[in-house]
Amino acid sequence: MNAADKIFIENCKEILQNGVWDNEYDVRPRWEDGTPAHTIKKFGIVNRYNLEESFPILTLRKTNFKAAVDELLWIWQKKSNNVNDLDSHIWDSWADGTGSIGKAYGYQLGIKHKYKEGEFNQVDRVIYDLKNNPYSRRILTNIYNFEDLHEMHLYPCAYSMTFNVSGNKLNAILNQRSQDMLAANNWNVVQYSILVHMMAQISGLEAGELVHVIADAHIYDRHVPIIEELIKNKSFDAPKIEVDKNITDFYDFKVDSFKLIDYKFNPVKIKVPIAV
Ligand SMILES: Nc1nc(=O)c2c([nH]1)NC[C@@H]1CN(c3ccc(C(=O)N[C@@H](CCC(=O)O)C(=O)O)cc3)CN21
Ligand SMILES: O=c1ccn([C@H]2C[C@H](O)[C@@H](COP(=O)(O)O)O2)c(=O)[nH]1
């Protein structure tokens, strides 16, 4: 079985078998009909994806690769916080009348900070260090900015990336405080794997390992029956990822710069309700 499916199935089984329900608590998220969206969770999951071996996209069901990459570029490249700059509608429920999601995600990555070498936003500082100072142990981003939390329509979930170079390999840790396993686990893994491939290519490095640290890994009550069926599905071999090798500037990558070769998946049509 391919590595991504295996990890996903193991995580879900662990949550369903040994997890803890929050039914006794007055939780924040709601279903569309106003019912509280309760979860069963496991605290503290660490998954390792070897990007040299395979591209970690689920085959148990299709992950919308293009929409996931589009959202990643929206945050990391456009540094936008406006849903009008996004091709999909996944953020519409958190946007105000102007399309803004508040001072979250892309907005935080775009803020400039002072350094000895001048002013950089968080993304450009990572790029600068990978090129000029690759053995630094200080190459990281963090968008969990307490000062601005009250102006974010949703607090950042995947909030920090630590980049680290070993030999000619670029490894990374994605820190995530909260994970909706069905809607966004593989979505987030695919996005940050692509980010490692992007950063590696523009720095003359090879993509190594993505370590995904999840604090609260949960399955929403209405997702439990969907997950129970999903993890019984057949798994296919992982596809290959092809990145346009001509790109040397981080800001030149487009959604179409990445191609999945031989992406096979179960053609199940699942309607995933999203808790808001
Ligand atoms: N409860 C919740 N779960 C999330 O995953 C989530 C939030 N809220 N709030 C902010 C963002 C928005 N994200 C989302 C929202 C919707 C989908 C979604 O509709 N997924 C569909 C496929 C979408 C597509 O094909 O384009 C799915 O089947 O998983 C995914 C991620 C991730 N985040
Ligand atoms: O990239 C993302 C963004 C959001 N999520 C999920 C995780 C939670 O289910 C909700 C956020 O609710 P909180 O109460 O603020 O934790 O969104 C995700 O998995 N990945």
UniProtKB/TrEMBL annotation:
Entry's Gene Ontology BP terms: methylation
Species classification: Bacteria, Bacillati, Bacillota, Tissierellia, Sedimentibacter
Domain called Thymidylate synthase/dCMP hydroxymethylase: residue spans: 7-276
Oligomer and partners: Homodimer.
Native source organism of the sequence: Sedimentibacter acidaminivorans
Primary gene name: thyA
Entry-linked Pfam families: Thymidylat_synt
Listed name of the protein: Thymidylate synthase
Function, as annotated: Catalyzes the reductive methylation of 2'-deoxyuridine-5'-monophosphate (dUMP) to 2'-deoxythymidine-5'-monophosphate (dTMP) while utilizing 5,10-methylenetetrahydrofolate (mTHF) as the methyl donor and reductant in the reaction, yielding dihydrofolate (DHF) as a by-product. This enzymatic reaction provides an intracellular de novo source of dTMP, an essential precursor for DNA biosynthesis.
Catalytic activity: dUMP + (6R)-5,10-methylene-5,6,7,8-tetrahydrofolate = 7,8-dihydrofolate + dTMP
